Amino acid sequence: MAEVVLSVRNLSVSFNTPDGVVHAVNDVSFDLQAGETLGIVGESGSGKSVTAGSLMRLNNSVTATTTGNVVVNGVDVLNCTEDEVRGIRGQDIAMVFQDPLSALNPYYSVGAQIAEAYQVHHADASKDEVEQVVIDMLTKVGIPHPETRLHQYPHQFSGGMRQRIVIAIALVNKPKVLIADEPTTALDVTVQAQILDLMMDLQRETNMAIILITHDLGVVAEVARDVLVMYGGRVVEKASINDLFVAPTHPYSWGLLGAVSSLEDLQRGHLKTIAGTPPSLISIPSGCAFHPRCEFYEGVGSRCSSEVPELRTISSGQSMSACHLDDVQIVSIGKSKVLQ
Ligand code: SF4
After folding, report:
1. Is residue 232 in contact with ligand 1, taking CB distance under 6 Å?
2. Which residue has the higher pLDDT, 222 or 265?
3. Cβ(291) to ligand 1 under 6 A?
4. What is the pTM of this model?
5. CATH number of the domain that 107 lies in?
6. Among the atoms of ligand 1, which is closest to the Cα of residue 304?
7. Which atom of ligand 1 is closest in space to residue 251's alpha carbon?
8. Domain match, 93 and 162 both
């Protein structure tokens, strides 16, 4: 069995705001093994990015309350000192952000930014060693003429090239876990495919684990082994990528899969959607947060609107679902939705 490199237990994050408490993440748990790619999917506001930020303790503002455990390489990120967490960031767990232009500093050359990330964990490295590491990383992520280009600034690179540089910064210390938060959203489809290929190649080389956060089911289908579907700050389905597409077990997943448009739909200008809008995380609906949008909602006074469904294993297989429908209903409706 592969080594567990990240273990998350009962992670909850809330923020105090002038409008009320935002319950951004509620009771999220999962493990990640070396070499594994885990997709986290859901609409905007489902808690994906806050979950990702918490894994590196990036949400530690005065307004945030974070509880639970996030263990990386034997250290509990949420309950260690600032020095310990600085030692883990970049070295054991690193992050690629959505927009490479705002992730890079426009005042420094790209070489200086990769060098800085390396020197944080290799303070004794000589100038020549650091320069060689920068050239090697630029070569690895496919930047041509790295000896010259390391002296250039972010604005001198295309969007795809900038994302490659952000990946170089994230990987320069060979982290065990890479969090990629919508890494291809700002890129066109050709460059998107190149960046995903690059991440998978680097994963094969280093055996790092990847958490890929996206709203794009096509992207997860291409690269992930397992997937968490999030809604209203909770995990509502946990499945292998194959099971999610062949036998999904939650009404929200059925809606997400049903909203993937075919070429025919696009030609007809007919985009499929899930009725309603995602909930405000300040006033999450009672019981199952999805109930105002769920076609299987059993009405006022039912468990759907009064009891938060527990994430449980569905008897037909390995998938876990947080829904009050019984297993027989879930399996038969799930199958019929896939066939539609
Ligand atoms: Fe729909 Fe009820 Fe299941 Fe929620 S618990 S997804 S409202 S059937």
Report:
1. no
2. 222
3. yes
4. 0.91
5. 3.40.50.300
6. 2
7. 6
8. yes
